[in-house]
Design brief:
Length: 465
Amino acid sequence: MTSQPCHDSLHNIQPHPFWQDTVAPAPTASSLAGSLECDLAIVGGGFTGLWTALLARRRSPTLNITIIEARRCGGEASGRNGGFCAPSISHGVSNALKRWPQEAEKLIRLGRQNLDELAADLQHFGMQVEFEREGKLNVASQPWQIDGLRSMQRNYARFGIECEWFEGSELARKLDSPLYGAGVFEPNYALLNPAKMAAELRRVCLAQGIRLFEQSPVLELMEGKNLLRLRTADGDMSAGHVALATNIAPPLLGHLASSVIPVYDYTLVSEPLSDAQLTAIGWTGRYGIADSGNQFHYLRKTADNRILWGGFDAIYHFGGRRDEALTQRPESFNRLAEQFRQAFPSLREVRFSHAWGGIIDTSARTTMFTGCAMQGRVAYALGFTGQGVSASRFAALNMLDLLAGERTERTELLMTSKAPFRFPPEPLRFAGVKMAQRSLAREDRDGHRDLLLKTFDAFGIGFDS
Ligand SMILES: Cc1cc2nc3c(=O)[nH]c(=O)nc-3n(C[C@H](O)[C@H](O)[C@H](O)COP(=O)(O)OP(=O)(O)OC[C@H]3O[C@@H](n4cnc5c(N)ncnc54)[C@H](O)[C@@H]3O)c2cc1C
């Protein structure tokens, strides 16, 4: 992997997303060359761009739709994530209540509706993505985290969301670990295989007559009198409308550059576990699990009973550096491997087969936002902050509403329509992120929320992954 000493469970690791190995590669689409025209051009072929294309087709069977992707569809965050598919568009119920108390009920309802509709779309289009709606167990290790879970349980009760409290031997039958003292199980939560999700969305888009160009980074977006123009190295596309679904790549609209920062998140996947190994840790169901620190882990099973174990480190590089090489970070992999052993001592012989990282598009509000430019002919959606698997579908609908000039319940949300707090320029940005991370780590150790975090709270600023 690199020269850094590696944890004994990480020898012979494959340095790429496990999910890639579960999908038969489709031939790459041709790149954009020459001058072409369409009604709707979508820049970016991750979940957001692919959903935008598919849902635009549903609204208009005759619209001429084109996706332009810089590399391969699903090659970035959409093919590298944990596959937790939340019934939420607001990074959870507590976040909705904290930041938008006046519209929390609406956000919660729309999030649950979005997951229902996503499940229905999978069925309607015959997309095979290992979708499992088996729930999620939220576990806590420290007394103040257990208090946090109690508050989560109260919030769920307030909005009629089904959940169940576990502790002691009851918890051990759901997850047996010396670290965790309590858990809240929410049955309405799904998991999927993200690489299959991207591949299936791509397949269905092509089957629906949507044109796709890959290996075609858009270099510039220009406003013409009648049409917008997207320029690539070898061609250009004129379009009536443009949806920007470029996530954390340097944005084509310069004013968005300080609204999100790239934060690297890392993941390990183990070799397949036997039933006996899984029974030894009480994890016999197919539900996903997450712990409750500011620096949290997420874990789930793959279809062949490997454990995916990710999270904790959230690395921001000075100047917002983005580089493929940064998706491999032995220090983070070693830490994750060691923390896995602490969580599950009986699995100390388990080896990991895959290790990778990806970029989280972190907004200071921890939720996505949308907006328009160029007289309403361009829409954008970004800032998912680690919860975009389901929210990307909602963002797609929101962009289509905006491009149609329609005022809908989606477009009127404060969460989506109000721009988030902008990150300050460097070197202040780097210093601010480091200070916030130190405070968050301290809070994880002693439960004390310091003045810096309280000040951020007062301004509605958050840092998460
Ligand atoms: C390690 C990791 C774990 C995560 N885990 C979860 C999880 O469990 N649950 C969850 O809900 N979310 C999770 N997320 C977040 C989730 O993956 C993202 O929010 C979601 O995939 C965003 O989709 P997207 O289409 O907006 O972005 P992307 O998948 O990043 O797609 C954007 C696309 O735009 C293309 N592009 C960029 N610029 C240009 C350009 N100029 N021209 C042409 N194309 C361009 C890129 O090549 C890319 O393919 C995780 C993210 C990471 C990195």
